[in-house]
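Re: the request from the purification team.
They wanted to know what the chain is likely to look like in 3D before they choose a buffer screen. I agreed to run a prediction and write the result into the notebook, where they can find it.
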Amino acid sequence: MRITGMAFTVILLLATGVYADGLRGLIDVSESQKETQKIISEETEAFKNVKKGLEDGAIQSGQSKDAIRERYGEPVVIIEKKENGLERWVYKPGSGTFFDGEKIYLFFDDDGLLNKTELRSK
């Protein structure tokens, strides 16, 4: 029989009597890791959807923020009115950082309509 690292830790905690706080802590860490993985997956899926929409020509100037959000998913970050008075939405894969890797920027005007898009590789 093979015992995984987590199972071994639980057995050790139970055997030594240090189980209530330690076990709760392990459960909390596990739940936190699951939530983090879910967020990373959602970011990556939204990035892939937006990238495909741009490649297929389905995302075009004049589309509303609500329509894009509903069809392609939530951006990772929304930066309000920083560049040329346009609101900027940032999509990136969950495994990427803000300093490197691919990012997609969608720029919206004051009416909430898509003004321009940009794909950055670095």
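For the purification team: The chain has a mean pLDDT of 82.
Please add any questions underneath this entry.
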